[in-house]
Amino acid sequence: MFDYIIVGGGSGGATLAGRLSQDPAVSVCLIEAGGEGRGILVRAPAGIMQVGKSKAMNYAYQTVPQTGLGGRIGYQPRGRGLGGSSAINAMLYLRGHRTDYDDWARLGCPGWNFDAVLPYFKRAEGNERGEDQLHGALGPLQVSEQQTPRGISSDFVTAAEQAGFSRNDDFNGAEQEGIGLYQVTQFHGGDRNGERCSAAAAYLHPVMDRPNLTVMTETQALRVVLENGRATGVEVRGKGGTEIIAASREVILCGGAFNSPHLLMLSGIGDPAELTPHGIKVQHALPGVGKNLQDHLDFTLSWKSRETDMMGLSFRGIAQLIAAIGEWRKTGEGLIASPFAESGGFIKSRPELDRPDLQLHFLIAMVDDHGRKRHWGFGYSCHVCVLRPKSRGTVGLASADPTKAPRIDPNFLADPADAALLLAGVKKTQKILAAPALAKYRYKELYKTEGLDDAALMAQICARADTIYHPVGTCKMGTDPMAVVDPQLRVHGIAGLRVVDASVMPTLIGGNTNAPTIMIAERAADLIGATAHQ
Prior knowledge:
534 residues, alpha/beta, 23 strands, 25% helix
């Protein structure tokens, strides 16, 4: 028996396991379906090109057909292994806008306003720039400048300035708005310079020899064991067969916005209308489980280029890549250390807005269908996404079999306001890409968007838009009837059970979600510790 069982070793779970096991008086068991997340394709940032193809490291979920996207089935990559999606993401260190967290507090989540969560961001952060009022320097999550950004990424920033947008060198500083180079979660200095710093590399791998920490990889959680309204353990299936792992204090779900609600439903916790058709006995009716799914829908504009100082598929590109591997192994620098999305930023669709409502990611490669369709030659891409979509989707059961994927319906563009805003974002992105600073790179669009009217652009959006990998909200925090957890992240109506991951976000933050998820786990460690000492 363990004091705490954590299900899922991703950004939330790895952080929480590292923090809770700092207390030698408690025992912690971490259950992870994937592997240890230490391989070279994880450690080398450019390994993301191949990691996405590996079912061993990527759940590679699919959505149901999306009415708003012409009936297309969407792709939802999710990290599988210690580190979770922080082991396969673009490593961008972003927190969102400070008002996102103030919104949470106003929605019934006291203690989650920006001033309250800032100390947890700082506690997590080991920023190369050092400590100041808004940043931490001593935390385990390494945050660095890019090792060797390409010239085109800086030229994109200049192009944005030429198009009338401001420059910003710190999106996590006093002002989020503007265009610049992103900071990344990579090790800086030392033997691991230029390596990816996943949540597992930051919090978990260095402490896996703690005697009070047991990490079970390649182990699938089947259900939460409930007795008299309390979570008492987890049934799992691993290499040794099926067994029940018991918890004396708490079971904590950290599977993310898809897997946490899925496990709750498999355990009989959720909307009876979702559970009963699959033959699952209702243990606790909680209608909000799996509801409130929010995600950043993204559209990509890609250009072919005759310039070659970027990532490309050609004989020259392959030769450059081979040379870059040697450079990275020696110094941690060069093309292999690139996050691909080297520059970008946050802009407003209308100047009178009080915060940006669009985000751009500029990539040093042509990207088509999440990188799954490759094109010969060199090029670049710019993504644009709506930061706070109004559309809401669901996660449900496709089967009562725990090994089957959940049913995922983001319900993209269900609200017409999202379509109108994304269209406006595409037009602003076109303006930047047409600026003089990028003239030498432009050759030919991969898919034509220049000169199209609004109807034709919307047809392109419906044909090619998809997630940029930030699903949240399916076990939302709050006190209203559809809330799944309270502001201490405890599941309503079940003792000894919490959720600590992006699924608890009541609303989607205006930015990438990895750093906020780590912040949630940092705060959860304090909340759990306070409960234990009451």
